[in-house]
Known about the structure:
mainly alpha; 12 helices; globular
Amino acid sequence: MDFLSCFQLDLFEIYFIIFTVFIASIIRGFNGFGFSATCISGFSFILPAIEIVPIILILEILISIFMIPYIWNKIDWNFVFQILLGIIIGSPIGLYLLKFLSPDIIHLLICIIVIFFSTLLMKGYSNKKINNFSVKIFTGSISGLINGMSTLGGMPVALLLLITGTQPNIIRGSLAALFFLTDIYAFVLSFFGDIVNLTTIYRVVPLVAILPLGVFIGNKFFIKSKETTYRRVVFYFLIFISIFGIIRIISNTYF
């Protein structure tokens, strides 16, 4: 009982979190993103948002390290640093709002926007003209704001890459590198904002060993997939996780 008290969770909840992280790490190994969205969908049944965010930030940093051997030569550093400039602006605002506002409304809006653009992309929509500095800064700012409030900041960046027709291996590598840098930044802000505590660390420790196994499995799936398969899987994932998020928000609000 003393052991479980460190986590402030019961045994079933611990097993549920471990399973969720394993599935999320496979998705991250394949997509290059989606770890946070998957974890949030599962963790939200057990923990409040303000306790979920610091756990996911730490796990995102670690899983990005485990992905380095698979993506290092496929990173578009120019894209990463341009998006990062916007994220530096948006993240403090998102973390500030997290302490005072419910993230559900923001989450709901994100889900609706993601479903809309994913549907357009599945029908063949693309726009390479928006692949410019100002759009990247704007996207980064929105991503930082969302990431600070809900750790779902990868979704708008992934959509931008898909809309501009970027190759899957570049999408995957650039997103992984971006999340590593942004989550370190967001974690530091969380630490000084008293959002991270000792319970957070206790909850993260038993999950670390699961991450490299999930990334390894996800990478195997990625290697075997074709470009069209990758894009289709990403679209379906974005739509599914968004619909799931909408259902969860509505059920929490009205039931």
